[in-house]
Automatic annotation (TrEMBL):
InterPro entries tied to this protein: Papain-like_cys_pep_sf, UFSP1/2_DUB_cat, Znf_C2H2_type
Record gene name: Zufsp
Catalytic activity: Thiol-dependent hydrolysis of ester, thioester, amide, peptide and isopeptide bonds formed by the C-terminal Gly of ubiquitin (a 76-residue protein attached to proteins as an intracellular targeting signal)
Stretch list, region Disordered: 52-74
Record-given protein name: Zinc finger-containing ubiquitin peptidase 1
Span of domain C2H2-type: 11-31
Taxonomic path: Eukaryota, Metazoa, Chordata, Craniata, Vertebrata
Record-linked PROSITE patterns: ZINC_FINGER_C2H2_1
Enzyme class: hydrolase
Biased composition (Basic and acidic residues): 58-74
Location of the protein in the cell: Cytoplasm; Nucleus
General function of this protein: Deubiquitinase with endodeubiquitinase activity that specifically interacts with and cleaves 'Lys-63'-linked long polyubiquitin chains. Shows only weak activity against 'Lys-11' and 'Lys-48'-linked chains. Plays an important role in genome stability pathways, functioning to prevent spontaneous DNA damage and also promote cellular survival in response to exogenous DNA damage. Modulates the ubiquitination status of replication protein A (RPA) complex proteins in response to replication stress.
Keyword Zinc: yes
GO MF assignments: cysteine-type deubiquitinase activity; deUFMylase activity; zinc ion binding
Length: 390
């Protein structure tokens, strides 16, 4: 007995003393359970529990690894993996060409110097540019008499293709250069393009899009890129082109052909929309219409191109004419010496049956914005929407 008259209970299996019989009973039960475990009664349950836990840990680790790899793959695909941008890729690819004996060291140094100059000035070096294709097409169609009933062409457009610095991710920027080359030939845009009289380099275009974001355009899109494009290999799409053009006070719209509108996953409504765009301001029945319309930016998952015109065949079918940034200057040059059989046009022609992506978006330019309209569009782009067809 304790001095203060409390009853003490001692554990028969160890020397612990308790003041409460219930606590002692629970304590003794624990001893007995432990004893059972060591006798092997519950050992299998314990092993099973541990094995299940190990498997669960493994599963979670591999799931986390898969998610991390997916995320890194997406970052690489969208050029947000901090592996550098145009300049780093350009130098790396040139070094590779020298290593493989495809480029002389003196040419490497010359091109490096040219590139540094182009980056410093913010002006594209014009190395991947082909001019005069629209004019050559105009001539060709005047004499073509097999199957084209009518054809509509954009205002002059220079073709730009990807270079060593942006191969694999630069198509959106190259299509912007094509569109801009056409706007610069149209005096109605002189006022908006006062500061952009020469075609900007890709890093410069990246900075211009960042400027548009800073003005408040498309905050959701901006945050997707962490508000940063310059120095990255980030892919851009219709929303970035829209923000950039609108920030320059160029009036444009995004049209979203979000699902096929014809059999076999085709998009006839896209072709009809483009025909309507080109043919609205051309009255009369001329066979070749060299319209005053700028080209159209055409985007689908993973690639973008520039629509420079549309043919209507004698059998009423439609055929788009596209400039693809993936086409080299050598291929484009062939179109300048267009022979009478038109084989070179295979590069440009796309029929309804050959555009079968799930979804297409276009950015179409249509005039100039006042400062008030620009401000209103900036406010509206807090949630950037497109017109959906159908």
């Amino acid at each position: 007995d304790a001095g203060n008259g409390e009853q003490l209970y001692e554990c028969p299996m160890c020397s612990l003393t308790c003041t409460n019989i219930q606590i002692l009973e629970e304590h003794v039960d624990l001893h007995l359970e432990e004893h059972n475990f060591s006798e092997g009664g519950n050992i299998r349950d314990l092993e099973l529990a541990q094995q299940l836990q190990t498997e669960e840990d493994e599963r979670q680790r591999s799931e986390e690894k898969r998610e991390r790899e997916e995320f890194e793959k997406l970052q690489r695909q969208y050029g947000l993996d901090n592996s550098g941008g145009f300049k780093q890729q350009f130098l790396k690819n040139m070094e590779r060409e020298v290593d493989r004996g495809r480029m002389q060291p003196f040419e490497y140094h010359k091109r490096k110097a040219d590139m540094m100059e182009s980056l410093a000035s913010g002006i594209d070096d014009g190395r991947t540019k082909t001019s005069g294709v629209i004019e050559a097409l105009c001539k060709y169609y005047q004499n073509e008499n097999k199957d084209v009933k009518r054809v509509w062409l954009s205002v002059g457009v220079d073709h730009f293709h990807s270079s060593l610095g942006d191969r694999g991710w630069g198509c959106g920027y190259r299509n912007f250069q094509m569109l801009l080359s056409s706007l610069l030939q149209n005096s109605s845009y002189n006022d908006c393009l006062r500061d952009t009289t020469l075609i900007p380099s890709i890093p410069k275009i990246q900075s211009m899009i960042e400027d548009a974001w800073r003005e408040g355009f498309d905050p959701q899109g901006a945050s997707h890129f962490n508000n940063r494009l310059h120095g990255s290999k980030a892919w851009i799409g219709a929303c970035e082109i829209y923000s950039l053009l609108t920030s320059l006070r160029i009036k444009c719209q995004i049209i979203d052909f979000h699902k096929p509108t014809g059999p076999m996953g085709t998009h006839p409504r896209l072709f009809e929309w483009i025909l309507h765009y080109y043919s609205t301001d051309s009255e009369g029945g001329a066979k070749v219409v060299c319209s005053s319309k700028p080209p159209i930016y055409l985007q689908h998952q993973g690639h973008s191109r520039t629509v420079i015109g549309i043919e209507e065949k004698k059998n009423k079918s439609l055929c788009l004419l596209l400039f693809d940034p993936g086409c080299s200057s050598q291929q484009m040059q062939k179109l300048l010496k267009q022979n009478s059989d038109g084989t070179g046009l295979k590069l440009l022609r796309k029929f309804v049956g050959s555009l079968k992506e799930k979804q297409y978006q276009i950015v179409a330019v249509d005039g100039v914005l006042s400062l008030e309209e620009k401000a209103a569009r900036c406010r509206a782009s807090q949630v950037l929407t497109s017109e959906k067809i159908p």
